[in-house]
Design a protein that fits this description.
2 copies of one chain form a homodimer.
Chain A: H1 3-21, H2 28-35, H3 39-45, H4 49-72, H5 78-94, H6 102-110, H7 115-138, H8 144-163, H9 167-183
Helix pairs in contact in A: 1-2, 1-4, 4-7, 5-7, 5-8, 5-9, 6-7, 7-8, 8-9
Chain A binds a DNA duplex (30 and 30 nucleotides) through residues 1, 27-29, 37-41, 43-44, 48-49.
DNA sequence: CCTCGGGGAGAACCGGCGTTCTCTACCGTA
DNA sequence: TACGGTAGAGAACGCCGGTTCTCCCCGAGG
């Protein structure tokens, strides 16, 4: 089997299991049986579990931000683009296997013990915040709004995960609309 | 030694270690050496680690909400009381051992595997949200504002933990002020 | 046909940790 | 002094899970 394909299968299994059940509750044997790869192959691709974890977070980071951007790009009006972020959050929250933000969860699990995971969490969040700030700048709105909308989005993610509901995205979207008005 | 005192020492150690390093990275031996209790005594008080975790979250829940309420009660004006929530968050974030919200972190670590911890996280967050909603009702402001302020606070907690900064409390407080104006 | 390298299956190893057990010291009491 | 009960220190046990090793098959090349 091609090495690329094997890597994808390993990462598919890792994403499904790590995101769904948490990282430390998933063993390499679980990754093996879900991916269909042998342990030997797995350890050829990722010499240790931590590297599999890092690769999982990295691949998901790229995919997550691409999906968000693709949704936002369906709008052209700068204000609509801002509000469509919360629209997309709602769609994400509604996915059946949604279980909160993978990076916030990883921070809770490994933030205190794995500097590399902590760095990835920070990088992901900074990228998201920069993206929101870019949308705000495109709409020629004042800069502090970016951070405030970012906090609303983070609060919605955390709450949607804990409560298992998509409602926080709606609430956050309403608040975002009010803030846009306030800064008009 | 009095059983009450021993229980307090165990919970002091549990809180310091579980909150500071995460739950699964702390062993019962760490609890023993930090608390100064013998393993035998520890297991008399808490028959299993999970019960120590639950007691830790429960005690911290009571203390956290008391501290918040005590700060808010220093104001009488209903609007100031609302904004003082974010004021208190900033003070909390500035504490030297601050490492994010204990319940959000616990959700990341155990939310998928421990129904009892998940229930405690939900109960704590519901209590906090109800508290904020009560402040909003006291100020005779419309009900949706409560959920929006709650999301801002959650976003600030998560971001302050990940970034290691108290700034999110200020940003969230500014956004809260704008929302108060918007609903005036 | 023989050989040899790579890969798969799963056992084996080993350290960590939750939990229990053993041994000993100590203290109050007859 | 003898004794029973309690508590502490820490070894022991058992399981789990990350990592490595063994054994076997198979396919390519001579």
């Amino acid at each position: 089997m091609d090495s690329e394909v094997a890597r994808d299968r390993a990462l598919d299994a890792a994403e499904k299991l790590f995101y769904g059940r948490g990282i430390h509750s998933v063993g390499m044997d679980d990754i093996r049986s879900t991916s269909g790869l042998s342990l030997k192959r797995l350890y050829q691709l990722f010499p240790a579990k931590e590297q599999l974890v890092e690769a999982y977070l990295e691949r998901r980071d790229v995919a997550w931000r691409q999906r968000l951007a693709a949704h936002v790009d369906r709008c052209t009006d700068p204000r609509e683009r801002i509000l469509s972020v919360f629209d997309w959050l709602r769609l994400w929250f509604l996915e059946p296997d949604f279980r909160g933000c993978a990076w916030i969860n990883s921070y809770g699990e490994l933030g205190a013990t794995s500097p590399r995971v902590l760095a990835q969490v920070r990088a992901h969040k900074q990228a998201f915040r920069a993206y929101v700030a870019g949308l705000v700048a495109d709409a020629e709105l004042p800069e502090p709004l970016g951070g405030q909308l970012y906090l609303l989005a983070e609060g919605a993610m955390v709450t949607a995960g804990i409560e298992g509901s998509a409602e926080p995205a709606v609430q956050a979207g309403l608040a975002a609309g009010l803030l846009l008005e306030a800064y008009r």
